[in-house]
Amino acid sequence: MNDTVTTPKTRTKTKVERPKLHKVILINDDYTPREFVTMVLKAEFRMTEDQAYKVMITAHKLGACVVAVFTKDVAETKATRATDAGRAKGYPLLFTTEPEE
Ligand code: TYC
């Protein structure tokens, strides 16, 4: 008969954390046409004309506007693609990203 009592000395607790979301931020400038900014927002961020116009005009008035939040990779890819769309036309249009608190 084996009377050995085996009490585990340690426990493993697996902790799963949600990936931090990152904001895509539209920065205002004096040169990119309003219609172009609105068009890029619709194409890259799947916004309606109304949503895109509101984000564009907010950045225009306040200097910047949060467009949407995504996981880090997606936020960076979309910001780069949207910025490149402006650059391809010679516009200084800029989208940046930053982690949410
Ligand atoms: N300020 C630009 C203009 O008057 C329009 C614009 C809006 C540009 C928002 C960039 O993020 C921007 N033509």
UniProtKB/TrEMBL annotation:
The keyword Amino-acid biosynthesis does not apply. The keyword Hydrolase applies. GO terms for molecular function: peptidase activity. Pfam families: ClpS (PF02617). InterPro entries: ClpS (IPR022935), ClpS_core (IPR003769), Ribosomal_bL12_C/ClpS-like (IPR014719). GO terms for biological process: protein catabolic process; proteolysis. Keywords: Hydrolase, Protease. Residues 18-96 form the Adaptor protein ClpS core domain. Belongs to the ClpS family. Binds to the N-terminal domain of the chaperone ClpA. Involved in the modulation of the specificity of the ClpAP-mediated ATP-dependent protein degradation. This is ATP-dependent Clp protease adapter protein ClpS. The gene is clpS.
